[in-house]
Amino acid sequence: MTVLIIFAIILLLVLLIAWGKINAFLAFLIVSIIGGLWLGIPLTKVMGAVQKGIGDTLGSLAIIIILGAMLGKLVADSGAAQKICSVLMKAFGFRYIQLALVLTGFTIGIPLFYNVGFVLVVPLIFTVVYQYKLPAIYIGLPMLAALSVTFGFLPPHPAPTALAVQFKANIGLTLLYGILIAIPAIVVAGPLFSQFLKNIPADPLKTFQPKELAPDKLPSTTSSFLAALLPVILLMLTAVLPFVVVTTSNSAAILSFLGEPAIVMLLSLAVATWVLGINRGIPMKDIMNSYADSVKEVSLILLIIGSAGALKQVLIESGVSQQIAQQLNKVNLHPLVLAWLIAAAIRICVGSATVAGLTTGGIFAPMVLQSQIHPSLMVLSIGAGSLAFSHVNDSGFWMFKEYFNLSIKDTLRTWTVMETLVAIVGLVGVLVIHLFV
Question: TM segments (predicted)?
Fold first, then answer.
């Protein structure tokens, strides 16, 4: 009966978002309250569970997400992303133009939220398309595959970061494993898959032709790469150093403090504010206005993540999560595979990778915390599943279709297949690493 109730709750969530077109925050809130009552939580405690879930989730994530949004906005507005693209294009040349774009998408995708990153990289793609007279899909899809992988697999993006916190996974280690899995996923879903797409007609709308900053207005190469990659560098250093250097209790405490994602993002933002802003003569007032605008862009993401935490808390306080964990332990599927399948199913129904990842995380949290499953690998398995089979209920699907001016059929055979390849290769990568850790 417990499993049926959970199935009904998730089905209601899916129907509210996909069929009823209700905002995901409101859908999660409604489903959390109904679910709490249905699962037997006393009337006087239902809203307490909802509020605790929202507070606990946002308490650990709000700082990271907001600082990440500010950093991404600065990287975009300052021209740092454009500079990174131009440097890589010159370094790799026409012959390896796809590789240059993939590295660009991966580099600037790390600090940027997906929608912001998409809007940012599309003009870069069209610059190459118009300049070199190349097929738009062939050039664009590998770059967008790299962008998608960073969103689904790598902290400090919302879903993987939230799952890492929920599962008590080391975020630096999750990032390291995520990069190892990201490389084959990008190669297969990007450059290799795009070889079959050269003849698909795409006529990018003139509206989306790029408006570039003049070269003399761009930041330096060092400043651009430093600002975009500093969060990754700091997270990886603090994760790896304890394994390669003998540490005292004091130095270990310092590393642990510096490795906190909020501290990493704050330090990275401070450096970026100087090198991309103040040092280039941009008034502090203008920088702060840009940061304020960035918070508006991610406010809805924060609300959705918080409300997903409400559903998670309802499942925990009703005791259902414990029962589900016990029942899932009896299923004849590896937990990493099962988590991938559930995340993929929710993604197909709801369309949101973030919703799919956080909903699956709420179901699997007790199992991860009570078993020997590697928490970082569970984060990545769910992240991979949450990217599977993007179709007409996903905003990313429509962004790709409209920007590249494609038919729905061609969008399905390009974008949807690319996202699914990323998900499948991601699962394979997780299972391979599982053999060695």
Answer: 30-50, 57-76, 96-129, 136-154, 174-193, 225-246, 252-277, 298-316, 336-365, 377-400, 412-436
